[in-house]
Amino acid sequence: MIDHQVRVHPSADRLPRPEQLAWKLAVAATGTQDVADLDPAAVAMAVNRVIDNAAVATASLRRRPVAVARAQALPHTATPGARVFGTPPGTRVSPEWAAWANGTAVRELDFHDTFLAADYSHPGDNIPPLLAVAQHTGRTGADLLRGIVAAYEIHVALVKGICLHAHRIDHVAHLSAATACGLGAMLRLPVETVHQAVGQAVHTTTATRQSRKGEISSWKAFAPAFAGKAAVEAVDRAMRGEGAPAPVYEGEDGFLAWMLDGPDAAYTVSLPGPGEARRAILDTYTKEHSAEYQAQAVIDLARRLREKTGPLGAVRDIVLHTSHHTHHVIGSGSGDPQKYDPAASRETLDHSVPYILAVALEDGTWHHERSYAPERARRPETVQLWRKISTVEDPEWTRRYHDPDPRHRAFGGRAVVTLDDGTVIEDELAVADAHPAGARPFDRAGYTAKFRTLAEGVVTPDAQDAFLDTAARLAALGCPQLAGLFPAVDTAAVAAYDQRLPKGLL
User: Fold this and answer.
1) Is the separation of the CB atoms in 296 and 435 below 8 Å?
2) Where are the transmembrane segments (predicted)?
3) Could you give the angle at which helices 219-239 and 127-137 cross, rounded to 10 degrees?
4) What angle do helix axes 141-161 and 172-187 make, rounded to 10 degrees?
5) What is the pLDDT of residues 428-482, one digit of tens each?
6) All domains in the chain, ordered by first residue
7) CA of 151: how far to CAs of 60, 132, 440, 466, in Å?
8) Which DSSP state fits 467?
9) CB-based contact 175:224 (threshold 8 Å)
10) How far apart are CA 97 and CA 226, in angstroms?
11) Long-range interactions of 9-17: CB distance < 8 A, separation 24+
12) How many CA atoms lie within 13 A of 55 on its CB side?
């Protein structure tokens, strides 16, 4: 890997393009090998994530934000166009609107992959815009895989090197850059074109983190789709010869100087050199449970704890000792009263580790719908237990969260349960069971089982088999066969749901 030093430069420096981070990202992306030369494990993981995305998208088809995004996309028909989850096979829309609809479907349940380092990310959000553009431009499955591996490489590098959260900037700014790079790799665009697309994408998708704070709304699902749509549009403009603000990262009025650490900002972003294997996707991990990633290990820990605690009515209090991120983002350290509100939105509850721990302790399981049902959140005994749970930051858990060795990185915590009689019960879990270093790491069988579970009642068993067979052969697919990556569903039932929504402008 090559360490690139990134800092703010005054305009008088006239920073040469090859020294700008956006250019270096474009070089790394467009230098991604053909699929036959890519690391086989990375290619296999990319297929897993295509399966994972389809699983969570299928389960979310009749959820309001997904239906709204789909309704907004459908008037924008195009030829060849791209498919939209939940619509008839012949329906095609323009790729930026397919990226919008499908990106929202993938993100809605907060149930696909994650990478946590200096910042946060859901790199699977790169896949919907890449798949949409691949369909519209006649690319093959091998081209798509090349783009996915490149997008993950760039996304992971940015998340490791530049922390947005410290300045309350939403993490989709890194997503848009990665998507633009993935599209450049897939389409084999010149470095100059990708450089301009990255600049446009980053400039237009930098937003505050309020979308994940306080009263969290459905925009949390739309935000990554917006970034994907913006990246597609940026690539389109750059291909037509239009430029971007530059240097978008290093400029004296740019991203680093005013959004992050200021004029003295300095960062290190590590990118692969020429011919070096692109394996960053293997450092990322998916979710077994539909909740914020830092809650994954907590749910698994709760299933162990409930065997030791006895009746939960005898609990005096529970303190989760955990990392800075977990405490301040989804714990009591956030200062968000909404995280303890039984009337809170689903989006808020899946970012409340006290709620998640309470329900997991009571139920011994987690479900993407039932665990968030309003009647579940308002159950009196649940509310009573929920409000006895707090989090504290433990420096050791923070250190482990940021351990440079992925094998030692930890995203869990230590729970201390005190009963009314003074008995103290403790247990801890470093990573979720499904994590690569966990008790039951997800492999192809795990992704397949997750898809079948979420597709049950939505996709027939025969259609499930057809989708899984298509995904497994992704590297050999021609463009027309990419349509098989959209599982067949009862589109009439989906349309009937859509008809009940309020109308917008179109």
Assistant:
1) yes
2) none
3) 40
4) 150
5) 999 999 999 999 999 999 999 999 999 999 999 999 999 999 999 999 999 999 9
6) 25-31+46-243+278-283 (1.10.4100.10), 293-429 (3.30.1330.120)
7) 24, 15, 27, 27
8) H
9) yes
10) 10
11) 9/247, 9/250, 9/251, 9/252, 10/252, 11/251, 11/252, 15/247, 15/250, 17/192, 17/195, 17/246
12) 29
Average per-residue pLDDT for the chain: 95
- What's the Cα-to-Cα distance from 363 to each of 240, 305, 429, rounded to whole Å? 55, 12, 19
Is 398 buried (19+), middle (13-18) or exposed (0-12) by CB count in 10 A?
A: middle
Residue 35 CA to residue 149 CA, distance in Å, equals: 9
Tokens of 339: 């995280």
Helix (H, G, I), strand (E, B) or coil at 338: helix
Q: Which amino acid is at 498?
A: D
Which tokens in the block code for residue 326?
Answer: 């977990």
79: number of Cβ within 10 Å: 7
Render 156-187 in DSSP notation, one character per residue. HHHHHH--SGGGTB-THHHHHHHHHHHHHHHH
pLDDT one-digit tens code per residue, 61-84: 999 999 999 999 999 999 999 999
* Structural tokens at position 128: 């919907």
Provide the token pair at 86. 């939940």
Q: Give the whole-angstrom CA distance, residue 6 versus residue 20.
A: 8
How far lies 489's CA from each of 42, 71, 267, 457, in Å? 30, 17, 46, 9
* Sign of the alpha-carbon torsion through 344, 349, 352, 357: positive
Tell me if 298 sits within 8 A of 352, measured CB to CB. no
Whole-number Å distance between alpha carbons of 351 and 60: 18
Rounded to whole angstroms, the Cα distance separating 353 from 343 reads 16
Can you tell me the distance from the alpha carbon of 505 to that of 285, in angstroms, rounded to the nearest whole number?
39
Question: DSSP characters for 401-455?
Answer: HT-SSTTT----EEEEEEETTS-EEEEEESS-TTSTTSSS---HHHHHHHHHHHH
Going by the DSSP 8-state scheme, the letter that residue 486 receives in this structure is S
CA distance 2 to 412: 31
161-212 pLDDT per residue, tens? 999 988 989 989 999 999 999 999 999 999 999 999 999 999 999 988 787 7
Q: Rounded CA gap, 303 and 308, in Å?
A: 10
CA atoms within 13 A on the CB side of 262: 1
The Cβ of residue 77 has, within 10 Å, a number of other Cβ atoms equal to 12
- Cβ atoms of 260 and 164 within 8 Å: the answer is yes
Is 81 in a helix, a strand, or coil? strand
Check pLDDT > 80 for residue 110: yes
